Amino acid sequence: MNFRRQMLSQFPELADPKSHPRFTGIPSFMRAPFTENLSDLDIAMCGVPYDGGVTNRTGTRLGPRDVRIQSTMMRCYNQATGAAPYEKARIGDIGDAWPVMPFELEHAHKEIESYFAEIKEAGALPLAVGGDHSMTLPILRAMAKDGPVALVQIDAHCDTGGMYQGSEHHHGSSFSAAVNEGLIDPKKSVQIGIRGGTIVPDLWKFSYDHGMRVITIDELYDMGIVAAMKEATDIVGDTPVYVTFDIDSLDPAFAPGTGTPEIGGITSYEALKMVRSLKDLNIIGADIVEVSPPFDPSGGTALIAATVMFELMCLMADCVDRNKAG
Fold it and tell me: Is the pLDDT of residue 9 over 80?
């Protein structure tokens, strides 16, 4: 230990752990410090290793661990946007919201909600990695305590289904439940990249009937990403917004490691461009979900998730900075 400190003192450029060789150290999200003291943070990164709500391939409970490993590839500055998140916000990894009772879905959701309620009470912004998409519902229950928020959802599926095999709550019903519980304002909510076959013709009828803006993958490409994201941000306006990014929004050629892959999705570059388009929104929290490492042999899906996470972190740090200035 003394030898290590002595060596690092000779190389001041290595004083920050984020500058250490990326194959070293204990992985945390972005190689940021690990802390359980929420008062130290503006942005709290955490994992939600839970996949009790999946209806197809399991494995997303392993997502946070693999994304942590791949996030060691992230740097301190965003070359594309000029963002310097660590200069604008206090950012750390607070560990995992792992349910003690994972086999009881509704109890597990209550545990997740309680975890994020602590983050909100401390005044930090949560940036979470899942886990299946059912986890977003309890996060919204915590984050929307003061009233409904807007939603930007980048996804292959609307996740506004209903009862499935006797269960009201699963990863395909999070946002119908969120609307019904008054957690999100459907007229301030945009679902982007929707595609794939359905079991019934009107599977996502709930979204349309409640005024949610659904931008299918065909419409996204017909409009162009710039125009589509401009419409999305116009809909949200200055309303506090939660951003949820399902990794299956990407084509499985780029992101095979997910539970419900749908061909014909966006590319990895388009994913970054879409997230960067949200730069002026008032983001109160965000997540990246549905990374399933057992179907991700190269680690590429987790790397995309880590990179999207970094882009979201940059946006959230700008929000912190604007709120401090205002």
Answer: no
